[in-house]
Amino acid sequence: MGSDSNDRRVIQLPIEPGLICLRGLSPKRLRFEVEYGLERGTTANSFLFLPGPGEADSIGSAAALLVHPPGASFAEPYLAQLRELVPSGVELQVVVSHVNPNRVALLHELARGWSKLRLIASNPAAKLLQDLWEQRKPTAEGEPEPAALPPLPPITVVRGEDTIERPDGSSISLLSAPTPRWPGALMAFEENTGLLMSGKFFSAHLCSEDWAESNRSSTEEDRRYFYDCLMAPMARQVEAVLNRVDELPIRCIAPGHGPAIAESWRSLLVDYRRWGESQGRSNLSVALLFASAYGNTAAIADALAQGVSRTGVRVESINCEFTPTDKLLETIRSCDALLIGSPTLGGHAPTPIVSALGTVLSEGDRSKPVGVFGSFGWSGEAIDLLETKLRDGGFSFAFEPIRVKFSPDASTIKTCEETGTALGRSLINAQRKMQRRSAAAGGLSESRSNPAVQALGRVVGSLCVLTTQKGSLSGAMVASWVSQASFSPPGLTVAVAKDRAVEALLHVGDAFAVNVLASGRESGPMKQFLQPFAPGADRFAGLELEQSPSGQPVLPEALAWLECSVKQRMECGDHWLIYAQVTSGALLDAAATTAVHQRRSGANY
User: Which label site among 35, 49, 351, 517 has the fewest CB atoms less than 10 Å from its CB?
Assistant: First the structure.
């Protein structure tokens, strides 16, 4: 589900005298990247320090200062607002953090509209600006030639940290916050107000006109989802950024997406550290090497990382364009599996990817699985190169190479997530086999002999099949951890393992159906939904289904079905506990009894 540009608009949110937040609003899903998977729209926040009196002859003088401009998706309404606030003859200084072709396209328009444009960027971001400024996406046959590009404006490079003193007394510190996904990231901190303009950090994709969130719980799920999608694969680098943020006298955090965090920002910093701890505890890791020209290969990498992270396996992201050789070597040597992705540019792989491939071929362990992925416009030579060299080099592949023409769509993203999850599970299963061999040599495992775990297995649950349909995406799983949770309104809870593919379709507001199985007739549905599915496979292929009022799949052979709407999610170790209200249902066979699940141990299903 895409978003029509006519749905996008830009509003002004005054923060302090002389400081305005220009917020782009998109009520629909902006892109098919995994981070937009909750489909609650998004906002794009930038911050404008209005021009003051005097001559604009240096950084921080009478010039207007724009922090974190959006991408070209909001160009038309954004430029209209900006022209009203900053005359074209005034110097416009722009702090650029997240650099990609979409951002560069907006900067092209700023360069056309403001002759005195100056960019402020970190050294990696300045390099990306120079690399991308003259690049264009391939045009299809019959498309008109695009307008000539303006020259690249002068760039002031921030090395580590710098300060901009404004004539109105405001002081803006620029802090480098590099990660593999955003090597050029800069945070901006206004000291007088304690406002941290954090860019991608602490963001959430939801459309809101309110300057700040109403309370912590109102955005907690959205911020956690954003973290899991984009931050978890970079947990170590994120921790380093948090250490720098801790030193600032913050009073409010204003991220690049979503409402500001005025009251609960301390809790959010604690959450970021807590969420990252689970990644740090894993003794299994997947190295994720990539480069991305237009963001499409990075989107595939994000989806793969999201899938791997769901299993609890740590992901080590490596942006080959900005990673030192020693760090690349360390990651390749220490990982348990390796994924490498590349775009195809002019029929070739980018030089950093070719160099990284050479390191993998010389230093990589052939006993560990590898995977190849990438996007391309008209050809896919880079993916072919990676596959051929690794196969010839004796590496075994965890999955067939993932080839995406142009941008991945929703089904492709979901398939990539499931591919990552399958890889994570295979690593965990291999580790467990080794542990079982060790346990067999030394006697019974502790979990099997633990009387409390044995007793836990005697908690009986009804056998059900959870089914869900969300747009073009669908999912299903056998569920036995289902329980009524409330009378008024009628509600139930269901526990869903974090590595279940269907978990991504069970967020607040999503709908699903619980199909209660009948004793004596449970074998057919169990066989269908307990079988292993290939990533992206249709769980309902070959079945004749009915539908609930909201379009959720219903199994006609079930004893009963309940249509439910997700209201809350609670993290419980390796599962999510989903609380949902029952919106409708039916008893299909009043004479049948419910099938139940008897277990010998509480250590497994």
Answer: 351
CA-based nearest residue to 281, from 574, 604, 530 = 574
Residue 127 and residue 119 in contact, taking contact as beta carbons nearer than 8 Å: no
Residue 112: how many other CB atoms lie within 10 Å: 15
Pairing of strands 511-516, 596-597: unpaired
* Cα gap 249→170, rounded to integer Å: 15
Strands (E), 275-348: 285-290, 314-319, 337-341
Report the alpha-carbon distance of residue 200 to residue 181 in Å, rounded.
10
Among the residue ranges 73-87, 355-369, 441-455, 466-480, the one predicted with the least confidence is 441-455
Q: What pLDDT is recorded for position 58?
A: 43
Q: Tell me the β-bridge partners of 476.
A: 467
What CATH number matches the domain at 5-135+149-277, 3.40.50.410, 3.40.50.2300, 3.60.15.10, 3.10.20.30? 3.60.15.10
Q: Which tens digits make up the pLDDT trace of 134-162?
A: 987 666 666 777 778 999 999 999 998 99
Domain 457-597: homologous superfamily in CATH: Electron Transport, Fmn-binding Protein; Chain A (2.30.110.10)
Q: How many residues does this entry show for the chain?
A: 605
Strand partners, 48: 20, 66
Beta-sheet strands, E only, within 425-574: 461-462, 464-470, 473-479, 482-486, 491-497, 511-516, 546-547, 553-554, 560-572
Lowest mean pLDDT among 28-32, 135-139, 358-362, 442-446: 442-446
Contacts of 541 (CB under 8 A, 6+ apart): none
Q: Do β-strands 473-479 and 464-470 pair in parallel, antiparallel, or remain unpaired?
A: antiparallel
Q: Cα–Cα distance between 506 and 554 in angstroms, integer? A: 17
Going 352 to 355 to 357 to 360, the CA torsion angle's sign is negative
How is the chain split into domains, by residue range? 5-135+149-277, 290-422, 457-597
Tens digit of each residue's pLDDT (9 = 90 or more) over 28-59: 888 888 899 999 999 999 999 998 764 444 44
First to last CA, the chain: 36
Across residues 271-275, what is the average pLDDT? 94
Note whether 311 and 317 are within 8 A (CB): no
pTM of the model: 0.89
Give dist(CA 529, CA 476) in Å, integer.
7
- What pLDDT is stored for residue 3 in this prediction? 44
Q: Do residues 354 and 325 lie in contact, with contact meaning Cβ atoms separated by under 8 Å?
A: no
Choose the CATH number for 290-422 among 3.30.70.20, 3.40.50.300, 3.40.50.360, 3.20.10.10. Answer: 3.40.50.360
Cβ-contact 340, 357 below 8 angstroms: yes
Of 78, 86, 87, nearest in space to 106 by CA? 78
- Cα–chain center distance at 409: 15
**Tens digit of pLDDT for each residue in 549-594?**
999 999 999 999 999 999 999 999 999 999 999 999 999 999 999 9
Q: Give per-residue pLDDT as tens, 277-308.
A: 877 788 999 999 999 877 899 999 999 999 99
